[in-house]
Amino acid sequence: MLTVLDPGPLATVQDLGRPGHAALGVPRSGAADRAALRLGNRLVGNADTAAGVEVTLGGLRVRAERDLLVALTGAAGPADIDGRPVAGGEPVRLRRGAVLRLGSPVTGLRTYLAARGGVAVQPVLGSRATDTLSGLGPAPLRAGTRLPIGLQAASEPQRWEAVSLVTHGELRLRVVLGPRQDWFTAAAVDHLFTLPWTVQSQADRVGLRLAGPMLERGRAGELPSEGCLRGALQVPPDGAPILLGPDGPVTGGYPVIAVVVDSDCDRSAQVRPGDHIRFERA
Fold it and tell me: Which tens digit of pLDDT belongs to each residue from 6-51?
């Protein structure tokens, strides 16, 4: 068991999500940086699908109610156990009664806390992920939340090279054009690839609003709602694209000019407002 003393700005339980329910209007959700969660689980011997805690901009404080093996991955920043600094990217013993504290990350946005046995909250539609759009899954963590930790793990803790997906400076993401690039002028498509985009303050697990040149439409009218997925670049009438995240809606009426390659979506989970993104053809 882990007791939350302070959740920081936002902390949620996340696993690899609940695929297969788009027909019900349910997003996949799950960890924004799936690679970081997988790494944390492997470090403590969990299956990749085990649930952990996704911490946005640090600030989390938790107390262990029994001896645990934990690991921190994703955005790197100061962390300590009862005042003793601990490193990320490796398994660490958290003794009963000890308090783990995460400071604000130096780079990146989201840090992941994995515990051997996984966070064992009740699954909803086959997943323990918190979906901030639909409200499915456990509520965001708050002071006093008690998180059960499972007793079973998949294997012995393993040593893995911690390859950081946190990019310094400008982030480059590969995209595939379409399915609605024909709704935009040739100049708009050119601007998408040649100019930088700035992440605005409207950035969360649902999506990132980007500032840059207006992506001008080449046709008038409205598009009937159609399917969407994580990584889609929707363009509202104001011409400023929105990059959909793990909790993004499964349908939308804004035309999608391009879609980020799925393997690149994890890196977009670590950008902050004010950071720059450039898109390139996959």
Answer: 999 999 999 999 999 988 889 999 999 999 999 999 999 999 999 9
Q: Is 137 within 8 Å of 99 (Cβ atoms)?
A: no
Contact 68, 116 (CB under 8 A): yes
Q: Is the pTM of this model over 0.90?
A: yes
Run of H or E residues at 130? none
Tokens at 109, concatenated:
């946005």
- What the block records as the tokens of 102 is 């995460």
Q: What letter represents residue 249's amino acid?
A: P
Assigned CATH topology for domain 171-281: Cyclophilin (2.40.100)
Q: Are 149 and 68 in contact (CB under 8 A)?
A: yes
Q: What is the DSSP letter of 52?
A: E
Using CA atoms, how far apart are residues 135 and 11, in angstroms rounded to an integer?
14
**pLDDT tens digits, one per residue of 133-176:** 989 999 999 999 999 999 877 777 776 665 555 556 689 999 99
Domain coordinates of the chain in residue numbers?
2-147, 171-281
Residue 13 has a CB neighbour count (10 Å cut-off) of 24
Separation CA 270–CA 267 (nearest Å): 6
- CATH fold of 2-147 reads Jelly Rolls (2.60.120)
- How far apart are the C-alpha atoms of 63 and 105, rounded to whole Å? 20
DSSP type of residue 20: T
DSSP H/E element including 47: none
